[in-house]
Design a protein that fits this description.
Length: about 750
């Protein structure tokens, strides 16, 4: 999939670079140069430009053959193959928006109003005919690209658009006079930037197509054409739109033919002004104007509804109003500072409805459920579980506050009670119940067929898990200490993480690997029992690394990892901070601040910890301390010390170390503009390197500092504290950062 997207993009830029022109003018020369650069940068580092990296795994759907003819969703008229083509157009349109800003930043592009968030209009182009005249909204990049591809021979629509952005004289419709979507061969009639001013003409054209046919006068369009006219939601209030909609309805009411498909691309905003909820529906509620609506993030729905609406207009020669719910991504235009009038949560909510991701989800096979839905379904069946057989008369939710170790133990037991195929195995996990008691009682409850001591060989433990996952079981192996994972890590790197990738998702080996690790065991055990190196895990593509700090998070994170394994075949490493296993207190001895109650099944869905969501403590406005694992408790204690100095901190527990919780991280950093990362892993190759890089890449301009453990193995005895991050390191660094 990604390859295909990249190919589309490269094709697009190479073709644009080769746009012919008898005497290339300066703009064209600049364009060619700009595009060559763009092509080079995107080819070299697609992720860095943000142009081609959709974060999608290869789905295997790029195959040709019968699979492409199947509906992309049962009951939809959109085939997989067509959907892939439209997805290419959607991506190319998004790239064009990015290219517009890129060109602008170099002073060689002159227009940055984009189509981002509106790419669902690709399906509208697919649902009507090439020969249906179209008068388009200025966010119709994807529509235009689909149309261009429909021409014989296909046109390179991306090149047309790029030339328009650069005001090049070779631009095919306006000759560089303005950036418009238009081309006679594509039957796209160009529009000016005066919003809604094209609606009266569209109405007039629909009327005239029918009238010309009646009069026996030839037009450039077949007699059964329909007119497609798209516009924004704020634009419907303009008197030109109101007049045209009224005239269309009025004509139809009188029984006159009016083959007009009005398409309102509703993103809820007109620059900064919100369209009241329900307003568009009232505008469209006109006599003889048939109303249709679709979710613009759902390409199959847009296609099906647009096809139905187009057929309705074509067959009856009567107007229809297609209301498509879009989002606007990246502001109104390149110059627009959206944060001045929209809250971060509103902006973030729109990104959740990104149509590109919507199409990607459509194309990714075997996505029957989300982890949240999986949890909700399990909660519904909770009454039927043999929970009392496992827990006796006292269910874990009635036990009172639990430690991290107890919480993990109860979560494992609950998960096993509900999943007959779940296995727990590793060194000493069965009879002994684990070195730290984490698997205590499981053998008794579930028997030796499901809970067993393995051979003393980490490679075999992981091999067993790989085979179990392949066979349809849900393996939850344990590697006794993080340091001992390394002698077998290729089973994770070279086998577990790659099977799905190299088999194009035809095979998978779901697994949740529990690994007690990290340091702070008061000098006991030295490096091999205090390993704080995670780089080897964080570097494995697709591997999920979860690290709970608190008992309640441990339960939520573990359930999410199990759910992801079941649903997606994910491989997760569940890294348990040994030093926090039996910790009870946060600030003072006996305060019980590090204990938490166990959630009953009915609350699992509400207490769900989605992959990629961090946890925030406090609302201080002076500084954000970002941490994980043992660092969370130290940071909370440091925050209390700093509060006594009058410094307000908030603490962010990353919880997920791979992939990092990108958006929560940025939000927490932006909330104070001052970030301290408290990282118990090593300064080199540790987690804080990635956190800093993430912030820098995202354009965070506030102050940043980090404290981490030394680049050292961890010695025995008191010497351990000389290399490990300490609470006082955090307090000192915070004070320095405030200077
Ligand atoms: C007649 C007219 N008045 C003002 C403008 C300035 N303007 C450009 S876009 C826009 C908002 C249009 O919003 P909407 O119709 O919802 O489309 P969207 O940009 O949200 O897709 C305005 C006010 C214009 N182009 N034309």
């Amino acid at each position: 999939m990604r390859k295909r997207a990249l190919a589309t993009y490269r094709q697009m830029v190479t073709a644009a670079a080769a746009v012919p022109g008898p005497t290339p003018d300066l703009a064209e020369q600049r364009l060619a140069r700009a595009i060559r650069e763009l092509a080079r940068s995107s080819a070299a580092e697609p992720g860095r430009t943000g142009l081609a990296d959709t974060g999608l795994a290869d789905t295997g759907l790029a195959d040709t053959g019968p699979a492409e003819a199947r509906p992309v969703r049962p009951g939809s008229g959109l085939s997989v193959g067509r959907c892939l083509d439209l997805f290419g157009a959607q991506l190319a349109s998004r790239h064009l928006d990015l290219a517009a800003r890129w060109l602008r930043s170099r002073g060689i592009g002159y227009y940055t109003i984009g189509s981002s968030g509106h790419e669902g209009n690709a399906a509208i182009a697919a649902a009507v005919r090439l020969t249906d005249p179209a008068l388009l909204h200025y966010r119709s990049g994807a529509f235009y690209l689909v149309r261009a591809a429909q021409a014989t021979p296909p046109r390179d629509g991306a090149a047309d658009v790029l030339l328009g952005l650069m005001a090049a004289s070779a631009e095919p419709i306006a000759g560089g006079r303005h950036k418009v979507f238009g081309h006679p061969e594509l039957h796209v009639i160009p529009q000016t930037s005066t919003i809604a001013s094209h609606l009266p003409r569209a109405m007039g054209l629909a009327f005239s197509l029918a009238r010309a046919a009646k009069l026996g006068v030839e037009t450039p369009w077949p007699h059964d054409s329909i007119v497609v006219c798209s516009f924004g939601d704020a634009s419907v209030n303009h008197s030109t739109a109101a007049g045209a909609i009224n005239a269309a309805s009025y004509s139809a009411y009188q029984g006159l033919p009016m083959p007009l498909l009005l398409v309102c691309e509703d993103n809820g905003l007109g620059i900064s002004v919100r369209t009241p909820a329900g307003w568009i529906e009232t505008v469209a509620a006109r006599p003889r104007l048939k109303y249709f609506s679709a979710d613009g993030a759902d390409l199959a729905a847009v296609y099906d509804v647009a096809a139905e609406a187009a057929n309705w207009v074509r067959d009856r020669r009567s107007p229809a109003f297609l209301h498509v719910h879009m989002v606007r991504l990246g502001g109104h235009a390149g110059t627009d500072v959206e944060s001045a009038y929209r809250s971060p949560s509103q902006i973030a909510a729109d990104t959740e409805r990104d149509p590109i991701l919507g199409t990607a989800r459509l194309l990714v096979p075997r996505r029957p459920a989300t982890v949240a839905a999986n949890l909700a379904a399990r909660a519904r069946h909770a009454d039927n579980w043999p929970r009392h057989k496992v827990f006796g008369t006292q269910l874990p939710e009635d036990e009172g506050p639990l430690t991290l170790a107890q919480s993990i133990n109860r979560t494992l037991a609950d998960a096993m009670a509900d999943r007959p195929g779940m296995l727990v195995f590793g060194e000493d996990v069965a009879r002994k119940g684990g070195v730290y008691g984490l698997t205590k009682g499981l053998l008794k409850s579930f028997g030796s067929g499901r809970v067993f001591d393995s051979v003393l060989d980490e490679q075999s433990i992981l091999g067993l898990a790989l085979g179990a996952g392949l066979a349809g079981l849900l393996p939850v192996p344990e590697i006794q200490y993080l340091a001992y994972l390394h002698n077998a890590i290729d089973q994770i790197r070279g086998e577990a993480a790659t099977l799905s990738f190299f088999s194009r998702t035809q095979y998978r080996n779901p697994m949740v690997l529990r690994v007690p690790g990290l340091a702070y065991q008061q000098g006991f055990g030295g490096h091999f029992h205090n390993d704080n190196g995670l780089a080897a895990l964080r570097d494995i593509p697709g591997l999920i690394v979860a690290c709970p700090a608190r008992p309640d998070d441990a339960a939520g994170l573990l359930r999410s990892c199990l759910g992801a394994a079941e649903i997606d075949g994910s491989v997760s490493v569940f890294l348990e901070p040994i030093a926090l296993y039996h910790e009870r207190d946060l600030y003072e001895p006996g305060d019980g601040g590090w204990l938490a109650r166990y959630e009953p099944p009915a609350r699992w869905s509400a207490a769900h910890v989605p992959l990629g969501r961090a946890r925030s403590y406090g609302r201080g406005r002076d500084m954000t301390i970002i941490s994980f694992g043992n660092g969370v408790r130290m940071s909370l204690r440091a925050a209390r010390t700093l509060a006594a100095d009058g410094v307000g901190c908030r603490v962010l527990d990353l919880r997920w170390l791979a992939p990092l919780p990108f958006e929560d991280l940025l939000r927490a950093a932006a909330a104070t503009g001052r970030v301290l990362i408290a990282d118990e892993t090593r300064r080199t190759g540790g987690v804080s390197e990635s956190v800093i890089t993430t912030l820098v890449d995202a354009g965070f301009t506030g102050r940043m500092a980090r404290v981490a453990s030394e680049d050292s193995f961890i010695p025995l005895g008191d010497a351990a504290s000389t290399v490990l991050l300490s609470e006082s390191d955090i307090v000192d660094a915070a004070r320095d950062l405030l200077q």
